[in-house]
# Entry
Amino acid sequence: MTREENRSWSESRQVSSQELQERLETVRTLQENELEMYEIAKDKLTGEHYLHYSYLHRNLAGAPGAGAGGEEVFHQLLPLDSDDVLGVLFSEQPYAYPQHWKRAFLRNGPEGHYVWFDPAYAEEEAENEAYGLDLASRLAEFKRQGNVSEEAVKRFLEELDKGSGDSR
# Structure
């Protein structure tokens, strides 16, 4: 077996669905119903563990796009270290998606491949959006007051610098 075939998926930008099916084995199913499933799975070649989450998505009839009225199953794999595996199995460590998925994970994407997704990006985007809304609100209030003298603008900018508390 070559190094390429035996490498960790964390070293790849994308992983084929076929490779995942060949290498993953279920360690224990944690929860399963008609809409979603959680299980701990193990890569047979590397020994790495993953929390496998799959869910059924029903496309609404009449919704735009292909597959309207059909069903799709999505899969996501969160890498787990040994402590996480033990915590989920024996200590009731929470694992629900998306609340407890705070680091990069594989999710199935286009053309039969899984790609890495980092949820931290979405959180940063939400923080930036909130900051932008706050800034726009403060600017609108400044304009509403009508004093746009050089001194007033200087004070406003100083207040913004003091109030941001970070390096935006």
Remarks:
- Strands lie at 14-16, 24-32, 36-43, 49-58, 71-80, 105-108, 113-117.
